[in-house]
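Feature request, filed as a ticket because there's no other form

It would be nice if the structure record came with a short human-readable summary line next to the tokens. Right now we just get the raw output. Example of a typical job, pasted below so the devs can see what we mean:
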Amino acid sequence: MRNVKVIQHSIVIQAPVAQLWQRMFDPQLYREWIAAFCEGSYYQGHWQQGETIRFLDPNGNGMVAKIVEYRPMEFISVSHLGFVYAGQDDLDSAEVTSWAPAYENFYFTSRGDSTELRIEQEIAPVYEDFMQQAWPNALQKLKTLAER
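Raw output as currently delivered:
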């Protein structure tokens, strides 16, 4: 049985949804705001429905996931499936099966010239405190990038 907590964060960004979308998922700009979680992090793969994507630290370790729903400038649902260690996917260890799959959903709502971004994420309880602290920092960095 999965043992996950659900956390939510949101922010209003003074930029149209298309601008936020572009700045959020551009590979170079992604590195800037995601650094709130781990300096030097990046993604490998494509933000398209059905695609496998890896979220990696500078050593190549991290998470493997699948984009389960992709509606440009509206909604993305990511299913985190396991860990990546030394270039190998771990999808079935006891640690992974205790929480996987864990969903991370991004909701984009246009508010005139602004956009509300809401994140809803399932996480293993051991990561709850870290994620509750990191998300506000990441969203603030993203806001700065999107509004410039």
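Something like this underneath would help us a lot:
The two ends are 44 Å apart (CA to CA).
The domain at 5-147 is CATH 3.30.530.20 (Alpha-D-Glucose-1,6-Bisphosphate; Chain A, domain 4).
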